[in-house]
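FAQ: What does the model actually see?

It sees only this:
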Amino acid sequence: MASPREIRLLDPHTVNQIAAGEVVERPASAVKELLENALDAGADQVSIELEGAGRRLIKISDNGCGMTPEQLPVALQRHATSKITRVEDLQSVASLGFRGEALPSIASVSVMTASTGVADGLRTKIRVEGGKVGEPEGVSGPRGTEFQVEDLFFNTPARLKFLKKDPTELSACVEIVSKYACARPDARISLRHEGRQLIQTSGSGDVRTAVAEVWGRETAKMMVPFDQYHGDVRVHGLVSPPHATRPTRNMQWLFVNGRPIKSRTVTAALDQACRAITPERRYPMAIVIIESDPARIDVNVSPTKSEVKFHAEGAIFDAVRRAVREALLETGMVPSAEDLAKAAEALRLASSNPLPAGGVVVPQPQLDMPRMEAMPEQMQPEAVATALPDLLEGLKIMGQVDQTFIVAENDNAILLIDQHVAHERVLYEMLRDTRGSGLIEVQKLLEPETIHVDRRAAELIAPRLEELKEVGFELEPFGGESFLVRSVPALVRLKHPMDILRDILDQMADGQAEGCVVPARDEVYILCSCKMAVKAGDPLGMPEMERLMQDLAKTENPYFCPHGRPITITISKGDLRRKFKR
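And it is asked to produce this:
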């Protein structure tokens, strides 16, 4: 029988390190907390400097109200805050921060130097190393506060071990600063990494201008504004039209009273507002800003303060859905009957064209890249592929079902083929097999086209241009968040290559920003093959289906796509006869 263990209070340093695990997960978390403090202090100019993606240095300077010599040492203690004074204040938090945990938590896992003053001239400076607070000293400087955080997690090697590579960590920092730049367009916010300017906003106070400064001018220009009141709740912001969508939700930024948040309620409202006018599994870009009485919102849900609870979820849902949908309708963004007729005619003409070398090409809305499903060992692609008969033995194409599945028969079986994943397999092997023998066939553009991405994506994509070139997309940096496109793969010449490229860039950037392992070159081929392939819902003519089946039969694995999804389902003719008691 175990004996009772001694129960004791933890020392303040240990408590702060435990709190740091909740509040400071990575450099971006420290940037977020310090930036919130600057904005809460009334700053309208904030300068952020990073080195080593924030591991080596995070320096944030502001022109806020500053702190007195007496206030600074108190601010470095746990649960010290100027934002609330009693528990009742939690019911109507109007500031970004309020827990009083950030500064001591960051200081406990870094070497922090704080310098502050309430007027130009004398400032107070304190150095904290691993939670050990040094003596205050007087220095000169302007009104405001500066925090310098060096060697983040130097005394917690386990935390360092779990950080991602620098591009991923830097991307997270850029994203959080970009969000606050949109939430607070009245503040001039700059971000530099090792001397290179990544973000610089003007502090104009205009949301569209702030979006242009972080997402790019072209993106901001095409977005549709909305602004409505629903009772005492104001919903305003920008949303992209149906032709400008993304394969993920990463460019849907939500804010409540100036705070970036995550909310299923608001996301669902966006989905419903755009459902009828946005292609399936595509998501609009959106900046949704909700202003409400702080007493009707609970921000004390998690230590990171990224989640909120609305007291009236239904009212918020209705307000967002109605504001976004009515803005799109009023701007004429819903396709007309004439537009739909033209699209149908284009599909009819496309289906009558022979399948060009390299694959089927029909300009249709894109679908998300399917995720790889786990399969039992006995169903792995290699095992099944070697056990099935030759597809082309007596092959006859019978038709297309639901403009998605090809129905065929050969000497041995009835075949059902998923046209999208079949074409994806063909394209993937073609891209992969050119790796050692030079580039695939490309189409040079007579006039280079410019493609714009946001700053975060530009930082992640720039080191990987050679991989894109290997699959036929030749890009070169064109300043800031822009790239010149000089060539595209010849096999997408009848599609919209810039749309395909934009999807590829989005998903390459999103995969790294979300903390995934940086994709291997092979995964770029998989992504490109998915985006270039014919889609479910594309009508195919008989010659196209025959060509696709011939190309599929030549692949090393005609039964599973590169993600592991089945391409072909077979019903043997013997089994078919037995089903009918023959």
